[in-house]
Amino acid sequence: MVLSSNTWNVVKMYxxxxxxxxxxxxxxQAGTLMALGDQIAQNLxxxxxxxxxxxxxxxxxxxxxxxxxxxxxxTWYGILDKYIGSKGGVVVLKKVCCDQLFFAPxxxxxxxxxxxxxxxxxxxxxxxxxxKEYPDILKNNYKLWPIxxxxxxxxxxxxxxVLKVQSxxxxxxxxxxxxxxxxx
Length: 184
What we know:
mainly alpha
């Protein structure tokens, strides 16, 4: 695959930003991709017309990506790398197990809680939504993310792991956006 000079310039700029400002760069990409996932949900899944698009909802998803998802995944992957290692099949399996047994259940709970609060749910409604949505979303998480994380932790260098995950998460965020809007 041959990349144009403009594409190479973007790649070089991204690498420079990632080196100089890793957390900010990864938070920005997570926010952008979460907002894009919400727009895909509204446009393609919910089939809303332009006049009916909820840009506040999109901004909220972007904010969740910027302030929570990006920093949390960046920090988590650093912790895994520091305490478990970065190379080898056994290391990768340990990382995936830790990611899916510890991080994923907590992160999904936090994500659904924040979305619910931003939707204006009181504590009782938030608890009811969590009881209803959490088990199915966690189950669907286990259908997708273990294989994604196997590839991510085995082949992708640490500094690009958040980008890899957020790229796949574009579809996941579309699902989460749509799913959390049901029965609002």
